[in-house]
Amino acid sequence: MAELIEMVAQRTPPGALPIEVRVAVGLLTGVSPDAMAFYFEAMAPERLGAQARLRARLVPLRGRCDACARAFELDAQAWLCPSCGEPTLRFQNGTELDLEALVVDDGEPHHDRAEDPQEERGPGS
Amino acid sequence: MANLITIEQKILKKNADLALENRQEIERRGLLAVGLLSAPGSGKTSLLERTLAALRGRLRAAVIEGDVQTDRDAQRIAALDVPVVQIVTNGTCHLEARMVQEALPRLPARDLELLFIENVGNLVCPSSYELGEHLRVVVLSVTEGEDKPLKYPAIFRNADVVVFNKIDLLPHLDYDLAAARRFALQVNPGLLLFELSCRTGAGLDPWTRFLEERVAARHTAG
Question: Which of chain A's ends, N or C, has fewer CB atoms near its CB within 10 Å?
């Protein structure tokens, strides 16, 4: 957590405030997004300000079963193939613990340009 | 105004970089490094005591001891006349590569072949922090639940070996060792499994022979 907070502090442009810290958590890390958010709220305000929030998302686990050769995508840790039940899953990911992005407030007044490509925007907005 | 900054940076990158440096230093010194992980009280230090005593005269070993508080475990190792460096983490629940990097220069310069790194007793956090070791060994005692591998999959997933300890107690317990083995292999089919008792010494021979073979393979490799 100390590493993450320091990383955010270093990647926040001078004069800006971090509002949202987006983190990707692999399902094989054993890291709980809720626990992360709890510790973030306890530790971040001193270095990043009280406005900073953590948004941790679990990354689906992708891979293939050696026994039945089926590809899979799972939303929870599993060790047995969802198709054939054999413990022969080969994972392509799962160990990620990445700082994906930061949303920062640069203190400038709002203007119309799109600032967040992930935001849902209606036509013509 | 809110701006999105895309970063895509590994949070534990610094630790991973330091672990890589540790690995290079460990290999420069011609060592095989073995990390020991377990819940508190599974018998990591007892396993070390037994292993070091058995390997005396066969392999030159040293130990880096991680503890939250006290150097009690390091004292137990030092009593065997084995070089030991203590890391007291002062509350941190796992070893980090940075701590091992500071400990490595404190090992004696004389020729060593095998380095054990005993982590803090914890089955959760140490799994995320590489230290630079070649082998990760999880010690599981049969007084714990046989479903530990399913409850703490990350650490078993990242391990190479599981040592089931305290098997002398099996006649007094309902522990299902076959189920524990099955659960461990479900989580990680590549695990090597050993069963032993640090109290009686049963099962120690295959374990110490395995360590000797791995040290010999390192010599052959480089």
Answer: C
Per DSSP, the residues of chain A read -HHHHHHHHHHSPTT-EEEEEEEEEETTS---HHHHHHHHHHHHHHHH-TT-EEEEEEEPEEEEETTT--EEEESS--SS-TTT--S-EEES----EEEEEEEEE-SSPP-SS---TTS---TT-
B128 CB within 8 Å of a chain A CB: yes
- What pLDDT, in 10s, does the model give residues A79-121? 888 899 888 888 899 989 999 999 999 888 776 555 555 544 4
Q: Can you tell me the distance from the alpha carbon of B44 to that of B122, in angstroms, rounded to the nearest whole number?
A: 11
Residue B81 touches chain A, beta carbons under 8 Å = no
| Residue of A26, A23, A24 lying closest to A93 (CA atoms) | A26
For the stretch A16-66, pLDDT in tens is 999 999 999 998 887 889 989 999 999 999 999 999 999 999 999 999 999
Beta bridge partners of B138: B37, B162
CA B120 vs. chain centroid, Å, equals 10
Which residues, 6+ apart, have CB-to-CB distance to B134 below 8 Å? B23, B26, B32, B33, B34, B214, B218
The parent domain of residue B84 ranges over 18-216
* ipTM of predicted complex: 0.76
- Report the half-sphere exposure of A46 (CA within 13 A, side-chain side): 7
Closest CA to A28 of A100, A94, A111, A96: A94
CATH number of the domain to which B150 belongs:
3.40.50.300
Give me the residue from B5, B10, B127 closest to A11, CB to CB.
B5
Using the structure block, give the residue that is written with the tokens 């004069």. A15
- pTM, whole model, 2 decimals? 0.84
Give the CATH architecture of domain A2-9+17-105. 2-Layer Sandwich (3.30)
Q: Percent of chain B, pLDDT > 70?
A: 99
pLDDT at site B202: 98
CA B42 to chain centre: 12
Nearest residue of chain A to residue B152 (CA atoms): A30
- Whether residue B7 lies inside any domain: the answer is no
